[in-house]
Amino acid sequence: MTIRRTGDGSSTLYSERYGQTFHSLHGAVSESRHVFLTGSGVAGRLAAGQPSRVLEIGFGTGLNCWLTADAALAGGAELELISLEQAVLPAAVLRGLEFGSVLQQPQLLEEYLAFRESLPEVVPAGRFSVKLGPQVQLALLVGEATSQELPTDWADAVYHDAFSPDANAELWTEEFLRQLQRALVPAGTLVTYSVKGEVRRRLQQLGFVVRKQPGPEGGKREMLVARRQ
User: If we measure between CA atoms, which residue out of 145, 163, 159, 213 comes closest to residue 24?
Assistant: First the structure.
């Protein structure tokens, strides 16, 4: 993997395996904040001090996690985050992205990096938990996402941040999206950067109320918000 600088000055990684970057080249941090934190309503919940639960598909570089945890500490809110990841990146790779510079509480990232360094270089399949700061609990579910046992009626929001449907098709099937629907609380929200027609139709067939919203300024034109009825 190689580091790429994005339009807002933050960094991302390019995956040779998938032929895609982990974040938008228009701006990694701006995409994460706009699509996932704001689009899901989690930013507003945390700013109001509301306890929140987030299920993330694709931990990747951890950027969504750091920004959400940072918002939780700023708002004095409790946060539980479950994140699915097939291959956990080494601490040295994450340090090279310098995400601590965009956080109000950079010790959150350092706490995770210390935790990552305590694990084997290749993290085996399983569940690994770490506390970040006084209010944030992160559980990493490592292995094939489609094989994970997800909680039911648990998440206030789902961040669907896997690689694109063309590159990572198994994470966009109706069967997998149904698992994410079950994981959400009633009226919970799934957000994703993908507005592909087949994704919208599958979510609608499952009973989600689906709408497009403007994407981040200077980035992708649209994003998708789907609310469980």
Answer: 163
- With CA atoms as reference, report the closest residue to 144 among 173, 167, 170: 170
> Torsions phi, psi of 162, nearest 5?
-75, 170
Q: What is the pLDDT of residues 146-198, one digit of tens each?
A: 999 999 999 999 999 998 899 899 999 999 999 999 999 999 999 999 999 99
Could you write out the DSSP letters of every residue in 27-92?
-HHHHIIIIIIIHHTHHHHHHTT--EEEEEE--TTSHHHHHHHHHHHHHT--EEEEEEESSPPPHH
Does 18 have pLDDT greater than 90?
A: no
41 sits in the region (left: phi over 0; alpha: psi -120 to 50; else beta) called left
- Domains in the chain (CATH in brackets) are 27-227 (3.40.50.150)
Pair 160, 192: CB distance under 8 Å: yes
Instruction: State both tokens at 201.
Output: 């139709």
State how far the Cα of 158 lies from the Cα of 57, in Å rounded to an integer. Answer: 8
CB 82 within 8 A of CB 151: yes
Which residue type occupies 73? L
* Partner residues linked to 15 by β-bridges: 20
In this predicted structure, which of 7-16, 68-77, 84-93, 152-161 has the lowest mean pLDDT?
Answer: 7-16
pTM, to two decimals: 0.95
Instruction: Name residue, tokens 């991302």.
Output: 12
